[in-house]
Amino acid sequence: MSNRQTMKAVGFYRYVPLTDPESLVDLEIEKPVPAGRDLLVEVKAISVNKADEDVRSWGNEGNDAPKILGWDAAGIVIGTGPDCTLFKPGDEVYYAGSLDRPGCNSEFHLVDERIAALKPASLDFAQAAALPLTSITAWEGLYERLGISRSEQDNRNKSILIIGAAGGVGSIATQLAKLAGLTVIGTASRAESAQWAKDHGADHIISHKEAFVPQLKELGLETVDYIFCLYDTAGHFEQMAEAIAPQGKICSIVPLNQPVNLDLIFFKSVSFHWELMFTKPQFKTEDMIGQHRLLQAVADLVDAGKVKPTLTQRLEPINAANLRLAHEKAAAGNMIGKLVLEHFQV
């Protein structure tokens, strides 16, 4: 454990394009102190999501202090707040964090213990860091928002369409949906992404660049019971409305960037749900400890060989230059699996 009172971090002071060296900069900032139910974690690896670049685009106006991004980490607990009961120093944990606190792109990081879990014992820190945000999003989207049972028997003859099945969330959602006994139809637009989705449990692949229903009919399906939209909600809304079964359910993780006609799903009595894994920690909901429990359940599934890790690319060290590169890759929207950075530059 370091006795230094400062730590290395990567952040930004103002929004500028990623091509500008000031878009993300190397920093030396004060090391945080745990309070309440905080864990102080020595960060070993971080993953980058499209959310990082989205939040960076919100800017940092009116703040003299730099903004630290990052919502996927794995590391070692080196300190705890006085109210902690779930962890102790030395525990190896993984988590996604909260939007209302500094992100994990720092040597040491504070996280509420109710949204962290022991990392999968069978994975290294980099593999574990690829999982939290996507696992929470997939789990909450499938089991809480869509209300899908985890029992294979309950889901016999039921189907789900996952739009963007080869991305970070899609890679986990496909596996969880298959474990629940659903027939999984994933969308992909490239041969390599289609193969990745199949390798992670998709029964069928269709293109999200073509009309859904004709492709589903070729598979012997008139409609699907559930749709999990992980890409371009507005652009796919009419296709989803046509493909969803009467009384079916749609969940999306992507905000609408333009108006859509909700009346398209009225006559089918279809319900539409949003999933944002930051909601529980940001609003301190009574059930936020559910993220601790679901991450522990995912870790158990990984260690049992029932869920595959989704890491596809590693970068090191953790510094501004590599994080700019990672942001560019994540923002491009065509990532297969997850990209992870490890080891802060000494």
Automatic annotation (TrEMBL):
InterPro entries: ADH-like_C, ADH-like_N, ADH_Zn_typ-1, ER, GroES-like_sf, NAD(P)-bd_dom_sf, Quin_OxRdtase/zeta-crystal_CS, Zinc-ADH_QOR/CCCR. Residues 19-341 form the Enoyl reductase (ER) domain. Keywords: Acetylation, Cytoplasm, Metal-binding, NADP, Oxidoreductase, RNA-binding, Zinc. Its main location: cytoplasm. Pfam families: ADH_N, ADH_zinc_N. Signal peptide: none annotated. Belongs to the zinc-containing alcohol dehydrogenase family. Quinone oxidoreductase subfamily. This is Zinc-type alcohol dehydrogenase-like protein. It comes from Paenibacillus beijingensis.
